Amino acid sequence: MLPVAACLFALACTQSHADSVEARCDIYPAGDDHASRMLACRFSQRQGYVTITREDGVVYDLVPDPQRAGRYTDQDGQPVVRDDDLGDQGLIFRLAGESVYVYWSTAALQPTTDNPTAPFSTDDYDATTLLRCRGAQAADFGQCPAGILRMDGGEGSVVVLSPAGEQFTINFMRDYVNATNREVEATLQGDTWTITTGSGEVYEVPVAAIEGG
Q1: Same domain membership, residue 187 and residue 96
Q2: Looking at the 3D structure of the chain, how many domains does it have?
Q3: Domain limits for position 18
Q4: Closest of 163, 160, 158 to residue 207, by C-alpha
Q5: What are phi and psi of 20, to 5 degrees?
Q6: Of 59, 184, 186, 203, which residue is the least packed, with the fewest Cβ within 10 Å?
Q7: Do 103 and 161 share a domain, yes or no?
Q8: What is the pLDDT of residues 76-92, one digit of tens each?
Q9: Residue 120, number of CB atoms within 10 A of its CB
Q10: What is the mean pLDDT of the chain?
Q11: 103 and 165 housed in the same domain
Q12: Global pTM?
């Protein structure tokens, strides 16, 4: 059976496939740019029917519209629109009174540990760090945990957990800088790379973090 994330986008999936996965749900009230809740949830799909079960007991039962892809009716008979803007990070379901952002990664739900760069550790990475970062709608910088994979010649990849709880990789190659799942603009000022994503997130990556000492 294909994983649920693959089934949603792969043409190979058929009506007979069914799957469910533990996920993270961010709840945005209609018209609000800030999530009111972030909590664990379970996403299930069978023959196009979608069920999202939140850990607080709220359940969304969505019946697909056979005539229009990405359109559903919820348990109250209200229209629901699926938005694929999260790419392979997850899905957005826009209901009448709120939007439910379903993320496949649950890393942001993990309890705080003695490791300030969790979920990254030197068991899996050459180094870990906290990067200065700013969300797309944020006015001030905060800190984002990151794991660093170093290569020869000063190249490397930095895996970041974004303020929104999405995990992605920034690749610092000799002739270019790019990222997985999103467009980025990279500028080098002194000994620090400033990475700006297409959605407006900003990350500051010291050259020393990439190259090591």
Answers
A1: no
A2: 2
A3: 4-107
A4: 158
A5: -145, 155
A6: 59
A7: no
A8: 999 999 999 888 889 99
A9: 24
A10: 88
A11: no
A12: 0.60
